[in-house]
Design brief:
With 456 residues, the protein is α/β, with parallel strands linked by helices. It has 15 helices and 15 strands. A five-stranded parallel β-sheet has the order 5-4-3-10-11, with helices on both faces. Helix 12 packs antiparallel against helix 13. Bound molecules: adenosine-5'-triphosphate and zinc ion. The site of adenosine-5'-triphosphate has 19 residues, from helix 1 and strand 10. Zinc ion binds next to helix 7. InterPro entries: Cys-tRNA-ligase, Cys-tRNA/MSH_ligase, CysS_C, Rossmann-like_a/b/a_fold, tRNA-synt_1_cat_dom, tRNAsynth_Ia_anticodon-bd. Belongs to the class-I aminoacyl-tRNA synthetase family. Monomer.
Amino acid sequence: MELMFYDTYERRLRPFVPLQTGAAGLYACGPTVYDYAHIGNLRTYLFGDLLRRVLALNGYAVNHVICVTDVGHLTSDADTGEDKMEKGSRRTSQSAWEIAAFYTRAFQQDIAALHILAPAVWARATEHIQEQIDFIADIERNGFTYRTADGIYFDTQKLERYGHLARLDIGGLQSGHRVDLRDKRTVTDFALWKFSGAQQRQMEWDSPWGRGFPGWHIECSAMSTKYLGALFDIHIGGEDHIPVHHSNEIAQHEACHAHPPARYWLHGAFLNVDGGDKMSKSAGEFLRLDTLVERGFDPLAYRYLVLSAHYRSPLTFSWAALDAAQTALGRLRLAWRRLPDGGQPDAGYQQAMQAELNQDLNTPRALALMWELLKSELPPATQKATLRWLDQVLGFGLAEWTPALLEVPDAVQALVTARDQARQEKRWADADTLRQAIESAGFTVRDTPAGASVQR
Ligand SMILES: Nc1ncnc2c1ncn2[C@@H]1O[C@H](COP(=O)(O)OP(=O)(O)OP(=O)(O)O)[C@@H](O)[C@H]1O
Ligand SMILES: [Zn+2]
């Protein structure tokens, strides 16, 4: 069955043709580990996970690389401002190295809780400094760099197709730009290597150009080449990467290899906050996955919510929407547990579901077909087998919900305790939300004079 993706580079749906039969190389720009991830960031990784699972469903062995940006991402995308890691270090009074390790672990825990499959490679920028220096040296040798007082810059005017991915209007950008360019020649030029200068930095290295640190974009060029080759299949990220980060990655690659690094570019749309702005670390409400859990939600309810929107459509977060997703997940788990084993998937539904997923990852339609399946006249065991097959992509882990696991897990017990507390304090709305969380975890709760009792 044909697999189609919307490719940002060509701005059209294209059939996926791998470089190597049966395999797919997938590179995802990862977190900047100076703080916790918010659920907006996590939406982007859920999109990557979905893509990976759909590729696997189509028989591809996926080589998935996620980078970890632990140096060089400045507070402004125009290469000014402070390194986010050094800033995070001041905020927490821990070293930049400590916070990188801490937030990388926190991120890995979040993605595990969301059932996002771990990549084959976690590529940390600070562990690939030599590769980045070598890449910059190649760009320099090919004549695409110049030196300023604060670093080595990429001369974007030397590339005819600079900014093609974003369809950038360079002339317009240049003339509309009122801010001081410092020593940059063109507004779109960007740093490949920044000098430490007089500033005392925690993360810095020697290089042929002087002591300093790599620019943000070069890490992805160097690490994707190392792990996936100079040309690989698919590069993904959030839509904010289109005009700057991915445009610059492509430029670096073109300067060395005369072609972009990847053959397909897919971008996930934002999670917005009420009012339409993107959820971000710097502005608005910062919701972590843990915040959701503290309010009684199952992390997988957020997974459900994200899958209920197409990855290229903006999604506005609301507690009501998350609540509805949690209820739907609870119903799904209940349906799963009631269905008997022993059937075979229904070929008609499989085909219809895969057709939707293969059409640019249409999860809202796949979920609609799932509910249709559960209401259908098909034998219950067939329904369950079909659901099991679909769950390879949805990733709810339904098969782990077998009645064999009858013990009350700690996480559920914690919800029960929190609910008891809420009831004692007459916080009825909180108690209700917690009850729903317990139920969507597959348990029922009954209040007895001796306290709440919980059972499957
Ligand atoms: N609101 C959002 N919705 C979806 N994806 C997002 C959102 N905000 C950031 N992302 C994506 O999250 C990924 C990780 O980004 P990173 O850790 O560098 O955070 P960031 O972009 O600096 O976030 P912020 O703007 O909140 O500081 C990127 O691929 C980015 O595109
Ligand atoms: Zn990147």
